[in-house]
Amino acid sequence: MLSHCAMMVAMPGPTTRAPRTRAENRQTMETEILRLGREHLSTHGAAGLSLRAIARELGVVSSAVYRYVPSRDELLTRLLVEGYTHLAESVDAATDRIDTEDHRGRIMAAAKAIRIWAVDDPARWALLYGSPVPGYAAPADRTVTPGTRVIARLIAELAAAHDAGVLATPDCEVSPALSADLDAIRAEFGNDLPDAALVTGTLLWAAVIGATSLEVFGQYGSETFSVPEHLFTAQIDAVLSSVFR
């Protein structure tokens, strides 16, 4: 009898979950607000974002949402930072899968990753690279660093190609004013690419963003190109043919 009682005492009882901390509750609410923010980007566009609408969907009063995200502009900023970061991570992952000596292949992989991300999430692409949202000014101290990660990666890949001696040097006119601007870019991104090579980098960037946006925003028309990714690859390949020797 004593043995049986001892066994009963030793058996663990049902576990009870510890109460959620205030920090955990805050994290959960902020995650949900961002998730709904992304959904509303797709359905209403950036200009149509509303914290009151998000509060209704969460089933709480609007003041409860404002405790975590104080304004629409703050929500836009968080969505921007999240979007830039996610895009950059996708580009980094795609680029890092290519051999470090395949400079052209690495840049092509980065470009394709940008397109894939944009096609998969056109609403967030529009937030990052579409028309400015009326009445909203992105705070530079929070958005510049994440917002320049992708171009910084492309410039780093161009610098590596230049160091390897495989980057072409186009014959283009660079004014003193433009050269000064390029000096600032060199200082910001920490490279010594010559002016002509940096001009090529801006051309590459414009081609990637432009070609991606034309497709994502339907500017080619619905039946013009049956396999849009093939067009994109050919476009970037054409640009890279002028970038590499």
Automatic annotation (TrEMBL):
Residue ranges forming the DNA-binding region read 50-69
Q: Which InterPro entries match?
A: Homeodomain-like_sf, HTH-type_TetR-like_transc_reg, HTH_TetR, MT1864/Rv1816-like_C, Tet_transcr_reg_TetR-rel_C_sf
Any one Pfam family match given in the protein's UniProt record, by short name: TetR_N
Give one GO molecular function term: transcription cis-regulatory region binding
Q: Which UniProt keywords apply?
A: DNA-binding, Transcription, Transcription regulation
Regions crossing the membrane: none
**Residue ranges annotated for the HTH tetR-type domain, each copy included:** 27-87
PANTHER family, per this entry? HTH-TYPE TRANSCRIPTIONAL REGULATOR RUTR (PTHR30055), HTH-TYPE TRANSCRIPTIONAL REGULATOR RV1816 (PTHR30055:SF243)
| Identification of the protein by name | TetR/AcrR family transcriptional regulator
Origin species, per record, is Gordonia polyisoprenivorans
